[in-house]
Amino acid sequence: MPTRPSKELETFDNPMAERDYTIRIEIPEFTCLCPKTGQPDFATLYLDYVPDRKCVELKALKLYVWSFRDEGAFHEAVTNRILDDLVRATQPRFMRLTGKFNVRGGIWTTVVAEHRAPDWTPPPPVALP
């Protein structure tokens, strides 16, 4: 059976849940449809997150992202929806999703949406010489 798009986001246990660390994922082939024209919109999604107990499984993430290919959505709405779904699945300490949409009519759109767990404080930055 061929692989199919899916709205199911699988997770796995964070192997280092006691440590704050950042996972960065670049998704260069995101597509959805313009809700006004029906034409395809293309974007690169950048996901940065500090996991708590769960991490998102990459193949499931790929199939989830693929599931938007035939859906009409404004850039702002789809970026926030994806963030909400990822937060619901993984309950991260921190998560940022950046959608950098390709030019359309001479206009580039970048949407940045964030989630921060209420009880999480980021560690102070380390200044290196």
Describe the 3D structure.
This protein has 129 residues and is of the alpha+beta class. Helices cover 19% and strands 38% of the residues. It contains two helices and six strands; from the N terminus they run E-E-E-E-H-H-E-E. It has helices spanning 58-66, 75-90; strands at 11-13, 23-33, 40-50, 54-56, 94-104, 107-116. The chain has a four-stranded antiparallel sheet with strand order 2-3-5-6, covered by helices on one side. Strand 5 (94-104) and strand 6 form a beta hairpin.
- The counted number of beta strands is 6
Shape: globular
**Rg, Cα atoms, Å:** 16 Å
The biggest sheet, with number of strands, parallel, antiparallel or mixed sense and barrel status, is: 4 strands, antiparallel
The helix content is 10-25%
Please give the order of strands in the largest beta sheet: 2-3-5-6
| C-alpha end-to-end distance | 54 Å
Note poorly predicted spans.
none
Beta-strand residue percentage? 35-45%
Mean pLDDT: 96
Structure annotation, total helices: 2
- Classify the secondary structure makeup into a structural class: alpha+beta
Q: What is the N-to-C order of secondary-structure elements (H for helix, E for strand)?
A: EEEEHHEE
